[in-house]
Amino acid sequence: MNLWIFFVQHRGEIFAATLEHLQLVVIAMAMAILIGVPLGLLLVHRKFLRTIALGIASILQTIPSLALFGFLIPIPFIGGIGKRTAIVALALYALLPILRNTYVGLTSIDPAVLESAEAMGMTSTQILLRVRFPLALAFILAGIRTATIITIGVATIAAAIGAGGLGTFIFRGVALVSDELLLAGAIPAALLAILADFLLGFVERRLRVT
After folding, report:
1. How much is the mean pLDDT over the chain?
2. Is 145 buried (19+), middle (13-18) or exposed (0-12) by CB count in 10 A?
3. What's the pTM value of the predicted model, to 2 decimals?
4. DSSP characters for 148-172?
5. I need a labelling partner for 144 at 20 to 30 A (CA). Which of 134, 176, 186, 205 fits?
6. Statement: residue 1 has pLDDT above 60
């Protein structure tokens, strides 16, 4: 009952923090998609680049989030306290699932389909964009789905460097030993993750059927 009253009394603050959280996630995901999908396309015929790109992306995701924020803060133009550093860090975290799924989707096409495209006189670039990419969309979206859920969770920690969002309530709750504050950040963040998973999962299933 106390939790419900707290939510009602602070609904404006919680709503504003949720929108701020969404802003961090949407911008970071847009950056990760704009980098990860084209890079995944490029990796199909670039074995040396593939090893480097996937290796770097894997290393970045193994770094604890607070440590990654700490590494980025001193970097000119990128770092600093606030949203900019948080968005860059979140985009880096989201990069691996998108990059990996894009590459796997593009290289998992039935060889018979690719041979048919070659027999029709299509170039390797045409095959990549007109055959591989449309058939790999469901795999790519699965990577975006995973990355989105990861980003929503990690974005709560971004409050530690002044980026705002729902993590603000969680850190305040820890400092003040307040269950209401903790849940005011945790519940909306969990609901955002569940909603994103449901919506993106629905689109992914539709793509697999078609």
Report:
1. 91
2. buried
3. 0.91
4. HHHHHHHTTGGGGGT--STHHHHHH
5. 186
6. no
183 CB burial (10 A radius; 0-12, 13-18, 19+): middle
As given in the structure block, the two tokens for residue 121 are 């006189």
Cα dist from 18 to 148, 149, 184, 186, whole Å: 15, 15, 10, 11
Question: Residue 16 is which amino acid?
Answer: A
Distance CA 205, CA 168 (A): 35
Q: Which two tokens stand for residue 199?
A: 């919506």
